Amino acid sequence: MSQHITRSVVVIGAGASGLAAASILTQAGHDVVVVEARDRIGGRLLSAPAAAAEGSLDLGATWFWDDERHIRTLVADSGLGSFPQHTTGDAVYQDAGGVQRLAGNPIDARSNRFTSGAAALTDALAATLPAGTLRLGTPVTAIRTSPSGLTVHTSDAVFEVKHVVLGVPPALALARIDFDSALPTDLVRTAEQTPVWMGAVVKVVAEYPEAFWRQGGLAGAAFSRTGPLQEIHDMSGPDGAPAALFGFAHASAARGTGRDFRTAVTGQLAQLFGPQAAKPLALHIQDWSAEEWTSPAQVAQLADHSLFGHRLFQRPALDGRLHWASTETARGYAGHIEGALQGGERAAHAILHALPDPNPEPAATTTA
Known about the structure:
alpha/beta; FAD/NAD(P)-binding domain; Polyamine Oxidase, Chain A, domain 2; 2 domains; five-stranded parallel β-sheet; about 25% strand
């Protein structure tokens, strides 16, 4: 029999947007629970330990930029280290005619990286939450309206709440959660067609004993029209350790190579950066299209990025109680970590405006 639990707010998804919303709401004194389908937090912020040196390698989000206010504030407040993306050196271009070296680096833009990996950001947000707020391994199966608000259903509990924050991609929410036809048709259509940031991407990180390409005057940046990796960047840590290159491939292209994908990747890296690139210490492959709690089955067909930040995501649904928060719903910086933080903040502030203050100031008393 399912437990019946009463809370003010349920946040669905323990990625950057969900944790940002939960942090704001709990600090304001509201009773919040965060339910996460995975057995880990972070969502698309995923860092793996390096094989040969101290440090982490990002298998999901990697960068942030100087004009991103929310993320820079969080990094500063949390005491997290950051460093600039390595861009020095020449880039490489590959097409059917072969490989050519480009003078300078027109591929990489100025950006920043997290010293301890991007997952340190969601770890820092989670550390602000009261004990017992997070429930991992808890997929949400249904959301229903009720006389007092909403009910959120999982396999072993029903949460009676006033508000719900959806910190997962809209298309995933529509694919995994039964809303009992309560959402407006235009909202359902828009959510189902909104692309999932990184949802159809395979990210590959090749780790090496040293950043040998830098010694040859290369930036570690490449663009390819033949693949399997379409773009490549330096992912080495501060001062070049751990040493790594990373690239993106379309999931369909990666699957098309079958068991030969690893061989195809290392062969391409050797063509671009020389024979040393053919034998990485470790090859980390993260297929985000295969992540059931990131990407719906039709993710490869979702290509209309103009739906990011759609006006329908800016206002709550279900009588103002269901709030969209993922990076895909952000008006600015959609697809960035900054967009996720903005989405979480937007949802939290809408709820703070709607709910009574849980810690009101006592009324002033006067004496005659």
